[in-house]
Specification:
2 copies of one chain form a homodimer.
Chain A: E1 14-17, H1 21-32, E2 37-40, H2 44-51, E3 56-57, E4 60-61, E5 64-67, E6 82-83, E7 88-91, H3 97-107, E8 111-112, E9 114-116, E10 137-141, H4 148-160, E11 164-168, H5 170-198, H6 200-204, H7 208-214, H8 221-230, H9 232-246, H10 250-262, E12 267-274, H11 277-285, E13 289-293, E14 297-304
Helix pairs in contact in A: 5-9
Keywords (chains A, B): Oxidoreductase
Family (chains A, B): Belongs to the prephenate/arogenate dehydrogenase family.
Domain Prephenate/arogenate dehydrogenase (chains A, B): 12-284
Chain lengths: 306, 306
């Protein structure tokens, strides 16, 4: 068993920058979990909403600093704030390679990219829900330069609010979310736009399959555009793979899609994974996740296909 | 006001052929609405399930005969049954031009094609739900040769179980459902199949947008394949229109899709429509529906875009 310098107790304080749906929910969930949380938002109303949930608001941030701001605001998110120069910085952005490129050069091994796979088509502090992360997967990036003890500290934050941690590189993450999140947004937009062109009769006959297939494009268009454009390369490639599927004979296509949707793992097999980058990334590539941290390894699971 | 020979009371009995999810639910809902209902299914278990809901089961059918069988079984659905030669025959099939071609030649004006826009990814008699039609749109086909009094009698059946009746020609219906139902099934299949190829990490990170975007391909693949292949021409054309949308610049595409999804009518404006084929079809083309029948006209609504 490898013996890494694992973090020692007590858990560090958490600073949350941006108190909209994701940041506000995270700050509230961490308060509920007994963690010391400081929050900041440029919008006084968002600060006030967080304060009513027990979040201390201030510009001085230390420990683990979570950037919960939209992608275009990420690079400048710490401007005007007083951040401990040894703080670990993580974010909740929906693409990871561009944020790594922006923040990684300045922060080096202190930056740990993250992406909780949750959130709804609602946004803003009024959509705050401390239970938002319960049971959600939370991708946490492990690059060659990531300092592992800092990665574990950020993982603790995700585990503390009920999420499961999926280790991945930024590039792996971006390819994966292009396929399962960004392309679905584009398909939903195209489906809705084409049905709109088809006219009122078509929209009047729209039922469950149209409602489900277009729900996600109810989200703020600025947010969706920033997300797909921020992951343009992987999304273009993933969209091309969907178009290839659409060119297959329909019985084949329907059978293949049904098999993926109806299939899925039979269960979860508990595993212990040593605190090594390669082992953690293998866990993520197998579809597994970290569910608990112990002394010299993490506990998690991989899908049981048996 | 036109004075058509509107149907006289009492409402005719209904025969339902096929007692799976749709037929079983319709028969049960009609029993609950006080209509006289006879049902038949080749499967004794389906007949037994219907009987427990108060449906009389027999091979002798009269009045309005509803074919609630899968598309491939439609042409032979009445074989072995004793059907009144003056019965009005309707169906619940998800495509209408092919069924019209098959049944219309033999039945002429006695055939009225129908398609309730409901049902779930579940199927079979165990998915029976008498509330399935409440609030659903029910497309009802008006061809040049359709006998209007028969159309109104079938419309009464739809209204009796809580649906709203959308008048359309078979060709209009098939174009519309290609855009809002059949293409969504193909997109869901392609999305799921491509994500499956992307691997376990992608599926592990799949969240709401993937779940919603693929839900409909959880349906029985044989049913989905029969549906899209039974409407191959309109579905191919509608899919091509979606692919055109996907070739637009993403900010434009996202804005256009969001506008359709977030838009929709501001309300419903009540209207009275004379009992004429052209007026009824205009109502359907405007996105309206029939909600109630009176003596010499139908009451319905059109979307209020004001």
């Amino acid at each position: 068993m490898t013996s890494f310098p694992v973090p020692t107790m007590p858990a560090p304080p958490v600073g949350v920058v941006g108190l909209g749906q994701l940041g506000g929910s995270l700050a509230a969930a961490l308060v509920a979990a007994g963690r010391q949380v400081t929050g900041w938002d440029v919008d006084p109303a968002a600060r006030e909403a967080a304060a009513t949930r027990g979040v201390r608001t201030a510009r001085e941030l230390t420990g683990i600093v979570v950037l919960a701001v939209p992608l275009p605001a990420m690079a400048a998110a710490l401007e005007g704030l007083d951040v401990d120069p040894d703080a670990t910085v993580t974010d909740l952005g929906s693409v990871k390679a561009p944020v790594l490129a922006e923040l990684g050069s300045a922060l080096g091994g202190r930056y740990v990219g993250g992406h909780p796979m949750c959130g709804t088509e609602r946004s803003g502090p009024e959509a705050t829900d401390p239970g938002l992360f319960t049971g959600a997967r939370w991708a946490l990036c492990l690059e060659p330069g990531t300092e592992l003890p800092r990665w574990l500290r950020v993982a603790e934050v995700a585990l503390a609010v009920g999420a499961e941690v999926v280790p991945a590189t930024a590039a792996e993450h971006d390819d994966a979310v292009a396929a399962v999140s960004h392309v679905p947004h584009l398909l939903a937009a195209a489906l809705a736009a084409a049905a709109g062109d088809a006219g009122p009769l078509a929209l009047a006959l729209a039922a469950g399959s149209f409602r489900d297939g277009t729900r996600v494009i109810g989200s703020d268009p600025g947010f969706v555009t920033a997300m797909v454009q921020g992951n343009a390369g992987p999304t273009t490639a993933a969209l091309a793979r969907v178009l290839e599927q659409l060119a297959r004979p329909w019985p084949e296509l329907v059978a293949a899609g049904h098999a993926v949707r109806a299939g899925g793992p039979a269960g979860r097999r508990p595993v212990r994974v040593p605190l090594e980058r390669a082992a953690l990334l293998s866990l993520g590539r197998a579809g597994g996740a970290v569910t608990r941290r112990l002394a010299a390894f993490v506990e998690g699971y991989v899908p049981d296909v048996g």
